[in-house]
Amino acid sequence: MNEIVISARNLTKHYRVGGGTLAGQGKVVRAVDGVTLDIRERETFALVGESGCGKTTLGRIMLRLQEPSGGQISYRGQDITALDDAGMRALRKKLQIVFQDPYASLNPRMRIEDILAEPLRTHGYGSAEVIRDRCAELLDMVGLRHTYLRNYPHQFSGGQRQRIGIARALANKPDFVVCDESVSALDVSIQAQVLNLLSDLQDELKLTYFFITHDLSVVRQFADRVGVMFLGRLVEVGRTEDIFAGPLHPYTMLLISAVPRADPRQRTRERPLMTGEIPSPMNLPPGCRFHTRCPFAKDICRTHDPDLQDMGQGRAVACHFPLNS
Amino acid sequence: MSQSAAVTNDLPEVIEEASFLRDTMRGFRKNRMAMVGLVFVCLLVFLAIFAPIISPHDPYRVALDEQLLPASTTYWLGTDNFGRDVLTRILYGARISLVVGTVPSLISLLIGTFMGILSGYMGGKTDFVIMRLADTMIAFPSLLLAMVVMYTLGANLFNIFIALALVGWAGVARVVRSQTLALKEKEFIEAARANGTSRVRIMFSHIFPNVTPTLIVLFSLSIPEAIMWESSLSFLGVGVQPPEASWGLLVAKGKEYLFQAPLVAIMPGVAILMTVLAFNFIGDGLRDALDPSMKD
């Protein structure tokens, strides 16, 4: 097995909402609520879950773009939660992010060359000439022409901008890249191109991806391992084939069954559907946080919160009654 | 990279360089009123600079035998109560009014932008202190504040700059702060943070260029405002002092002879009106030209 690149231990992120000097305590949103996770070198780990389950927050705190409320993140054995600003800044070379919205992620008033050169200058990559060459090389690497250095972002299409965003993330030869819904804003055909680019770059540059998405067909095509997140917590982790072949958590099962099928003969008339509303992260139910929507919930689920338990062969599930067992 | 190579083949060899300035000018030229305003302002600047060459009269020469003359071929707009040519005094007044219009606006823009970006980006205590300071400035009636400053420091041009900058920066800071707050949430700022870019650099090279369109519009709209302030202060006697000519002062002195020689008071007023209007048209035109959603 490859070395662990990033490991998260019991990460939490709580937001206080409402309240104030006079309004009292307010409520606490548990956006990320105790996530423990190891990501290994050169793998693509996909994090899936519905909107508002804390996927993006988890990705941000793993890069310390937001500070975790608790827990620990280590990069190759080094605790990065304890680093000061200067130490963290030096490490940012290795930890990068590709964003969701290619229209908001590039500064409209900067030329492509300045966008790409910024991380290089920040980390003292070399002389102006060396940096310019590197920018041209980066554009070539993501399948654009290096003659585009003097252009502005608004002169490019969404897919092209996303490539520029990828080039910027790769400028300092990172190790670990968070892709936050990086293809969700693109058309399906462009999506495929960008995914191919990402996987080519992974082979070439030995990258590790933390791929945040809600699109299960992308996950199936692209990821080595999958983590399923529900209301701030991982409910299932495992290899992609295993999870798609036999989900252990009822939530995973329901998610997978909700993927539209292109082949009409494969469609089944009866589809298990999720019922009820997703509980508010401000007011979590006691016991398993999925029990309000779970078709298999029993008494214990309403009182005891299941921990993520190892099921062997790299699988883990947080359920009192895992499926297929 | 077979896939990416295939994509490259469809790309144009070179994309024409875009220029922020050129795009803005293109939009601006379409606006007829703004162009009229621009031509007027250019003409005014030209006349103000070359006033000594253009005008055959001395703006300070007192000729008691030529008091309050009506318009004639020698004195196009007549003379005032000291026999000085009104048109010449208006031309010399344009010098002061234009300087007073631009310099304090620039100062308040500079201070306001700095404070606004700092306040919006740093947040927390910095934000609180700066915004309460701005609130305090705004809470005073501006004219009163400016008058107090002029009274305490004495009436001269430099103090007018200070008074007007003091009155103006808070408004600029508020606008810039709100823009900064919106920009701060954009992903490109987060990308810069993820790259390890320092906060000072983010404020300078990411936030500042994105508030410049607003600043240009604020600037063009604050010039007429400053001209009005100066006129008001001078009219009230705490601004520019005679025998210096400023438009507000000319109106103030001329009003005493409104019935004998109406041009003495009215023409500087017309000059103020037209200049303020011209700058406002330019400001509106710039606002439209700089707003990307208004393009084409």
From TrEMBL, chain A:
InterPro entries: AAA+_ATPase (IPR003593), ABC_transp_ATP-bind (IPR050319), ABC_transporter-like_ATP-bd (IPR003439), ABC_transporter-like_CS (IPR017871), Oligopep_ABC_C (IPR013563), P-loop_NTPase (IPR027417). The keyword DNA-binding does not apply. Keywords: ATP-binding, Nucleotide-binding, Transport. It is a peripheral membrane protein. SMART domains: AAA (SM00382). The keyword Electron transport does not apply. Residues 6-256 form the ABC transporter domain. GO terms for cellular component: plasma membrane. Pfam families: ABC_tran, oligo_HPY. It is found in: Cell inner membrane. GO terms for molecular function: ATP binding; ATP hydrolysis activity. One of its GO terms (biological process) is transmembrane transport. Belongs to the ABC transporter superfamily. NCBIfam families: oligo_HPY. This is Peptide ABC transporter ATP-binding protein. It comes from Fuscovulum blasticum DSM 2131. The lineage of its organism: Bacteria, Pseudomonadati, Pseudomonadota, Alphaproteobacteria, Rhodobacterales.
Automatic annotation (TrEMBL), chain B:
The chain crosses the membrane at residues 34-54, 96-121, 133-151, 157-176, 207-229, 257-282. InterPro entries: BP-dependent_transpt_permease, MetI-like, MetI-like_sf, OppC_N. One of its GO terms (cellular component) is plasma membrane. It is a multi-pass membrane protein. SUPFAM superfamilies: MetI-like. Residues 94-283 form the ABC transmembrane type-1 domain. One of its GO terms (biological process) is peptide transport. It comes from the Bacteria. It is found in: Cell membrane. PROSITE patterns: ABC_TM1. Pfam families: BPD_transp_1, OppC_N. Keywords: Cell membrane, Membrane, Peptide transport, Protein transport, Transmembrane, Transmembrane helix, Transport. Belongs to the binding-protein-dependent transport system permease family. PANTHER family: D,D-DIPEPTIDE TRANSPORT SYSTEM PERMEASE PROTEIN DDPC-RELATED (PTHR43386:SF1), OLIGOPEPTIDE TRANSPORT SYSTEM PERMEASE PROTEIN APPC (PTHR43386). This is ABC transporter permease. The lineage of its organism: Bacteria, Pseudomonadati, Pseudomonadota, Alphaproteobacteria, Rhodobacterales.
